[in-house]
Amino acid sequence: MTPGKAFLTTEEIRSLSARSDLWGAALLLHCWALILGALAVFLWWPNALTFVLAVMVIGSRQLGLAILMHEAAHNALFKSRKLNEFAGVWLCGAPILADLASYRHYHLMHHRHTQTEQDPDLRLSKPFPTTRASLRRKLIRDITGQTGIKQRAAQVMFALRLVGEIEGVSSQDLAQAFHGPVLTRALVANGVLFAVFWALGGWWLWVALWLLPLLTWFQMVLRIRNIAEHGAVEFSEDPLRNTRTTLAGPLERLFLAPYWVNYHLEHHLVMHVPAHNLPRLHAMLRDKGVTGRMMLAEGYAQVLRAASARTA
């Protein structure tokens, strides 16, 4: 049963669930336009500030591609399954070294078993709350590329069958590991990006403004997003308490939470609602008086304080 049926009528859910090819195309165009726009600003005015800004914007839009792949995994980005598959595989997943089919498999398990022992994402939330020092160490490993390098190396080794289970690397990480055609698609997509970046200014741009953001900023905001969704919430089957929605401002939406990913509780209530309708779903729940019972955070700073509230 869809958890949202406890709070919404069938007609309301149906109206929220309508897919739109126009919306899907617009979101993909917006994501890639921001990536190329950040690159263009750096090329037009190359300095340390525009470089750091480009890394942050591109890294956040790499997360945006992951979010749009998530939409495609729910067949919510476009009306047709074929368009969802093509966009999710080639325009979203392959450029960031992710696999739509593997992601869909474990992600639907996460929806079925949210915050239970069968939840494949439990290892992301169970360590929280932790101490400030522990959270700081995690974020430093992310932003310095240590996490990204470890996970990408694990993907490659797993793809080449050099290893089986990898210590310190979760089943979620390996769910997106390369194998067979997935490796080929990732190489093709990144080969195209390499050629585009080289044509625009030099081969090194792909390393500096695609690979570097993927290994650093992307990893950090991915962790923050994961913490916000299920970190330091109730370990229960209550859909209003085992998931969190974070009310994000414009800068947070630009750098941390693109494409309404912050409305995560609403997504769990009705998982097939397209992302652009999640604010509308939130408003409906507010009007019905439901939000007072929900896990809500006023921004990501509040989330990180809650996630690092343990004293020892």
From TrEMBL:
One of its GO terms (biological process) is lipid biosynthetic process. The chain crosses the membrane at residues 22-45, 51-71, 83-103, 192-215. GO terms for cellular component: membrane. Residues 44-288 form the Fatty acid desaturase domain. It comes from the Bacteria. Pfam families: FA_desaturase (PF00487). GO terms for molecular function: oxidoreductase activity, acting on paired donors, with oxidation of a pair of donors resulting in the reduction of molecular oxygen to two molecules of water. Keywords: Membrane, Transmembrane, Transmembrane helix. PANTHER family: DELTA(5) FATTY ACID DESATURASE C-RELATED, FATTY ACID DESATURASE 2. This is Fatty acid desaturase.
